[in-house]
């Protein structure tokens, strides 16, 4: 007879039960290898760590939640797939689909025991994760594939996170969200350790880990697209440059363009599997500095102070 297949959740339930636990807004968190992960990610993370076999042309898109994941997914997809899908084309998949439906979210795929789906993807694969660098599978951190990270001013991240979580829990207070970020007990937190894990990796292996900032992308998205394409081993050719392909990618992935799509309108449906979120929730304001509308100067100074202290001497600053 055949051995019954266990889901990752069943297989690792004892291990998960033994981990420190905290409740944060809509999520149960577990402390796993130094980070507070949503409980439902932990078994999948273990399977990811043990079973993922990277291909040399894989690109893992990594981010702390609410720091530009959706945008990075769109930009990377548009740049990587520009041969098959010219960015200016009106039939481009990104004009029909939310970026989260174009690029698989590793953490959910493994949590759902669906890792075989990744094996079926054609190369070069693009995938994304919210895990910190130190929790990525050994072969990935040994340099077997490429990793792109996007970070963002933590103050804007907190405000974005609060607005996002409020979609699922309307009475969630900003103060509670802020406190959880400040003490690190937030999904994939502490945020400074998350950012530093990728920062250090990008300093050590700039050929393997590309470190981007949301604010830099806002200032000069075209420069970001060029860096992305070059890093992925497919720089824009002079002919593509002359044809305006970089600008077309920027335009295709712009906040206004994506927010305005039928698929991302309020009521048009959800993205994500375990905890589906309305697709329009991924497009709120798309600017830098919105924290000032939500945070007191004291709160801003406190979070800045924590982050500054944690980042001191690392060469990274916000
Ligand atoms: P705000 O809530 O500050 O507007 P993530 O994709 O990691 O969940 O991050 C969401 C944040 O990125 C939100 O920030 C969202 O508005 C912004 N965003 C989404 N798509 C974007 C795009 N195409 N360009 C710029 N910002 C974008």
From TrEMBL:
Pfam families: Sulfotransfer_1. GO terms for molecular function: transferase activity. The keyword rRNA processing does not apply. This is Sulfotransferase. Belongs to the sulfotransferase 1 family. Its EC number is 2.8.2.-. Keywords: Transferase. SUPFAM superfamilies: P-loop containing nucleoside triphosphate hydrolases. PANTHER family: SULFOTRANSFERASE SULT (PTHR11783). Gene3D superfamilies: P-loop containing nucleotide triphosphate hydrolases. Residues 56-315 form the Sulfotransferase domain.
